Amino acid sequence: MANKKRTNSLWRYWGLIAFVVAMTGWLTADFGPLAITGLSALSLLWFLFQAPVPCAALNRGEAQTCRNNGRGVLRGCHIKQHQWQKLKGLVVRRRWREISADLFPNATTSLASMGAIVALLSSIIGLVKSLTGKG
Fold it and tell me: Rounded to an integer, what distance in angstroms lies between the CA atom of residue 83 and that of residue 69?
């Protein structure tokens, strides 16, 4: 029973494992650019929608943010109003300062946001390399 729990807790971080493998692929050139692009895209989706981060959505009537555990940089916690509040905030026209305050409110979310940015850049670079045939 304990082994199954350990496997499930490791499975929660599948995107981080894909991210590490993709970055290792860039450093060692063991994978082709298309494989690195795929792994980077998968890890980008994990960072945006599944990474365990604090919710940090604004609570109603209070000047405080939600302290529940959230799922991903763009999603909130189990409260229905919080679930897509960050994504809506990025779609609706806002100032860059407000967007950066939402994406980098604390250390955990900042690391997930930086991971998403690096994974996005890695996906783009890998796609360009695979399309141009250089790699």
Answer: 11
Question: Do the Cβ atoms of 103 and 111 come closer than 8 Å?
Answer: no
If one counts the domains in the chain, the total is 1
Strands (E), 17-132: 52-54, 69-71
Task: Check: CB of residue 48 under 8 Å from CB of residue 21.
Answer: no
Tell me the pTM.
0.81
Q: Rounded to an integer, what distance in angstroms lies between the CA atom of residue 3 and that of residue 12?
A: 15
Q: Which domain holds residue 127?
A: 2-132
Question: How far is Cα 47 from Cα 113, in angstroms, rounded to an integer?
Answer: 7
Mean pLDDT by 10 residues, the chain (135 residues): 62 90 89 91 94 84 82 86 79 73 85 93 91 75
3 state SS of 71:
strand
Cβ-contact 17, 117 below 8 angstroms: no
